[in-house]
Sequence to fold (183 residues):
Amino acid sequence: MFAEEEAALLIAAARTPQELREMVERRASGRPLEHVIGWAEFRGLRIGVDEGVFVPRRRTEFLVERAAALAPAAGAVVVDLCCGSGALGAALARSLDGPELHAADIDPVAARCARRNVEGLGLVHEGDLYGPLPQALRGRVDVLLANVPYVPSEEVDLLPVEARVHEARVALDGGRQSAVRDQ
Ligand SMILES: C[S@@+](CC[C@H](N)C(=O)[O-])C[C@H]1O[C@@H](n2cnc3c(N)ncnc32)[C@H](O)[C@@H]1O
Fold:
């Protein structure tokens, strides 16, 4: 995104000149734009993104497109695992007819944020992977969406400050690469 576009978003989000000054300062100190203005665009939706919550990346829209192509046209049962803000599940649910959406995340801050974003579209559960999902889903899931933490532990320190400092470590750290190689 170009600086002019960021400036336009900040100007649109600020209610007063003072608020704009504070937002610019927060952005200049390295906070992601989406945390400063409180939302990210994802597949044409405005997804609320609270401080610390993983900012949904535009490139992940591809995953939603693939899932939409594979899902049953009507009544699909969809699980968005490691849902973060809930952007993926919300976007997929909006492109299907009468889906049953369940999203889950281990981070209470992310789960709270996702609840707002999937309100009226589905349910958000809090806990480790499949643990918090209702038993009634067993054997009924048509589509499992999952954009899990994918940065090897050894490489988290190499991330730009926007991610390394301002997104929760649990959202980024995918574990030791050597542990995967050893399996
Ligand atoms: C890379 S972020 C992706 C978030 C979202 N899927 C997206 O693409 O915008 C990974 C998410 O996984 C969650 N997470 C990490 N470990 C988890 C676990 N064991 N069980 C459930 N969620 C987990 C994090 O809290 C974070 O929200």
Summary: The pocket of S-adenosylmethionine is lined by residues 54, 56, 60, 82-85, 87-88, 104-107, 110, 128-129, 147-149, 170-171 (CB under 6 Å).
